[in-house]
Design goal:
mainly alpha; 2 domains; 5 helices; 58% helix
């Protein structure tokens, strides 16, 4: 008998919540031997019941936007000015912010 070890995060999560979902064992018993918290197991179980295995894929916590990003019109203006003047982009950005 060969034991299949999970190779992805999704497989690892499924390995822990599958017996709970199939009503083979209770959540409280799994928590005693599981390296993850009860809250994590509850969240994974709810997600699994909501949308199946696809929901167990880890999601990025990286922000989708940068609030401090230079506005696009200033970027375009800097590119135009760099063609004419002999200044670096940062100095041009400072100059445009003052205007």
């Amino acid at each position: 008998m060969s034991i299949h070890m999970p190779t992805t995060i999704k497989e690892e999560r499924l390995r822990w919540i599958s017996p709970i979902s199939n009503k083979e064992i209770s959540l409280t018993k799994v928590v005693k031997v599981c390296p993850y918290s009860q809250r994590s197991l509850e969240r994974w179980l709810a997600a699994y019941r909501r949308n199946g295995e696809a929901e167990l894929e880890p999601r990025s916590t990286r922000p989708k936007t940068n609030p401090r990003e230079t506005p696009i019109r200033i970027k375009e203006r800097i590119i135009e000015l760099r063609k004419d003047k002999d200044k670096c982009a940062l100095k041009l950005k400072w100059q445009l912010e003052k205007e």
